[in-house]
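Annotated sample (chain length 118).
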Amino acid sequence: QVRLVESGGGLVQAGGSLRLSCVLSQTISVFNTMSWYRQSPGNQRELVATITSGGSTNYATAVKGRFTISKDDAKKTLYLQMNSLKPEDTAVYYCNLRYRFVRDYDHWGQGTQVTVSS
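Output written by the structure step:
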């Protein structure tokens, strides 16, 4: 069972920056997709950014140009650099890993709270 552990959340003023990290318990050698999602109270979980094992990235319109997703395979770590934060970015941020090996796998971290004050 792959485990994902997020860290780096916290309280920051609008316009500030945070970097989230997500450490995997093991290396995934097959093609995979890692993503950051977020969920704020009363809202559905939404996709923030995605990176494939090949390094291709994709971003939600709301964060494009402000957030950067990256990974360090040697450290088994996924990152989300968040700049120019806005109060509407306040949410619990979750790390997600998806891959297929005989069957589909979908793993989630426990989440880390990001709060942006105005």
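Annotation: The first strand starts at residue 4 and ends at 7.
Annotation: The mean pLDDT is 96.
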